[in-house]
Structures are given as C-alpha cells and as structure tokens.
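Bump. Still looking for ABC transporter permease structure tokens.
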Amino acid sequence: MHRNALRRLLHARRLSVVTLAASALLATGGVALAQTAPAGTAAGGKVKVGFMLPYTGTYAALGTAIENGFRMYVQQQGGKLGGRDVEYFKVDDESDPAKAPENATKLIRRDQVDVVVGTVHSGVQMGIVKVAKENNTLLIIPNAGVDEATGPLCGPNIFRSSFSNWQPGYAMGHVLADRGMKKVVTLTWKYAAGEQSVKGFKEAFEAKGGKVVKELSLPFPNVEFQALITEVASLKPDAVFVFFAGGGAVKFVKDWQAAGLKDKIPLYGSGFLTDGTLDAQGAAAQGLETTLHYADGLSNARDKAFRLDYAKTYKLQPDVYAVQGYDAAQLLAAGANAVKGDMTRKPDIIKAMEAAKVDSPRGAFTLSKAHNPVQDFYLRKVDGRENKVSTVAVKALADPARGCRL
Ligand code: BEZ
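Sorry for the wait, here they are.
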C-alpha cells in the first residue's frame, strides 16, 4: 500500500488499533491492509479458528495430526465451542520461516480469525508470535517448542499446548547422567528446535557430572546424515543424543542402523525421534529410548477413550501431535466457554485459559505463568509399533521461562 493511503487510513481508524495494523503491514511487507485487526467474534457469530500448520514437507504428517486432534475434540462438543459453531481457515506454512509473517497476517487480517492455532516448526513460530503480538490475536501453539515463545517473547495472548524445546532435552539429560554416562555427542538439525533441545539436555547432564564432548548439526531439513554418522562413530562416545522429527527422523533412524551403529553406540533422543514414525522406521527403531510428555501404555481413562475415538474417526493410531492438537482445542474451549462464545471478551478468555486444568490424554496438566504446560516427562522404549512408557523421567517439569515478564 502507498504511504499516503496508509496515512489517510491512520486518521480514519482508532489510532491504537491501526498503529498495530500498520506496523504489522510494514514489518511483513506482505498482505494488503484491507481490515483493521479483528476485535473477535461477538454474539451470534461462529468462532473462527485459523490453522497455520505444515501440510507439505518433512513435517506434513505432524500438521495433519494436530488438525485431526483439534477437530476431534470440537466434534466431541457437538461441533461447538462456547455454544457457537466453529469455522475453520487453513494455511500451509510449509515449515518455511521466511513466509511466516505473511501467512499469519493472512489468517488474522484477511480471514479475521479469533484464534491462530499454529505451528510445528520453531522458526516459523517466531514469525507467528510476532504477528499475533502486534495484532493482539489469541495464539495457541500446538507443537513448536521455541523457548522464546514462553520466554522473552511471552505475552498474555500467547499459549502453548505442547512443550518448550528445553523440556524433553532436560529430561533426557537426567536419565543419561543417572545411568552413569560421562561422554555424549549431540546431533541435530541446526535451528532452534535442535539447538534448544541440546541446551536443555546439556544443562541437566552436565549439572550431574556428564560432558557433551561435541555438538554436531546439519541444516534443516537436510537428510544427508552419512558424514556426520561417520564422525560420531570416530568420537566413540558413551551415547548420542539427537533431535529429529517427522520424515527426517525416519531417515536418520534407518541410516543409523544401516551404518551398523545400532548395537554399538547407544542412541537417545527427545521423543519426536520415534513418535508418529514407527511404521516407517520398522526394525531400525526397536529398543530406542526417548523422553517425551506422551507415551503408549499410559493407563488413564482419558487416554484410552481418546485413542479409541481417534482410531475410529481417522483409522489411525494417534501420536503426540494429535494429543497436542486435541489439547489446544480443550484450552480454547476453556476460554470460549467462560464467555459463552463472545470472543470479543479477550481478558476473560485469557483468564479462563490461564486457570484451566487440561484433562489431557498425556495426564492432566496446568499452565505455568508463562503459559507453557507443567507436565510429566516419560521415559519410553520402542517395542513393536509403540513407544511404551517405562517410567516418569521427571515429574511436573516446568520450563524455567527465562526472560518472561508476565
Ligand atoms: C520444532 O521445530 O519446534 C519442532 C518440530 C518438530 C517436532 C518438535 C519440535
């Protein structure tokens, strides 16, 4: 939009709203500013939910599972939240951080959604958080663990139904230190999810006397693992800790076995390494141990009912991503129900979401002050097509939320 046109618009609208809108537009350089920031759906309208998720690329299956879980919870409520019908909007974020501001702006300004549910990839999440903050739009993060979202960039309108990158890594750091491991090599994709997982791992592992002797990485979503696997073997560590997920995790686990290291160097990871991937990984994954906030074989009634319904609805077994989508909908329901679907009442929605005790298939959880789940982290072991729970690695683990001022 031309600068003069923007200036005229600034005078025609309430200054506070348009200042936010203008800064979003100028920052993204993207979608034309046709509307002011949405105030929220008022009495009588539908609750508008915008999915910003990956539907293509290495994380495509993760995005679909999140949407499936979310929709299933809404269906269980008769298709309504806060007594209102729900209308969905969708954007494929392609796990591409460069497109994130424009994609988020489309949902918020073009589609005028009440809430953005997104996303999977930590780099894309940074763009969404920025736009959601600029527009004061409610955001529920159903996967991406980027620590900043519930750390220095936390905000009253930013919620997470998943985990912070720090959490599963930290849990595994404890496990390996307690097993007497001393010398560990880490290997991840070189972006926030991998780097912050390693940071969490290192914090717990080194506090108990272990040492991370080398941190290896490759760019996301590169899957040319061979040279790095050879380097790990030459370092002869006690164990390896990795972060990979989705299609990349399938390839890594198979390459690790093909290189003949499966029975030579113990391989550990955050649970994304083997969640939603076991059918494709087959024998290569058997016996792998990981830490995550969900597992197969949790014997709570909520999980049993969830799994039965998910299998019936989608002819698939659910995974952690489906659980996080389901719980994103539960969290939103807590807010929407408190205001009987009047999505203009943001402070009341936020208050209800902050106070929610989410009855999750993973086990009930509450939110920290920074709006991140305080939850148990399970140690799991692959057995057939399941990540079977062995034990609770760390109970009620809260992200430290460093830098969050709420
Ligand atoms: C992330 O980018 O934050 C992420 C992606 C897949 C699984 C877990 C975390």
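Confidence is low (pLDDT under 50) at residues 1-35.

Edit: fixed formatting.
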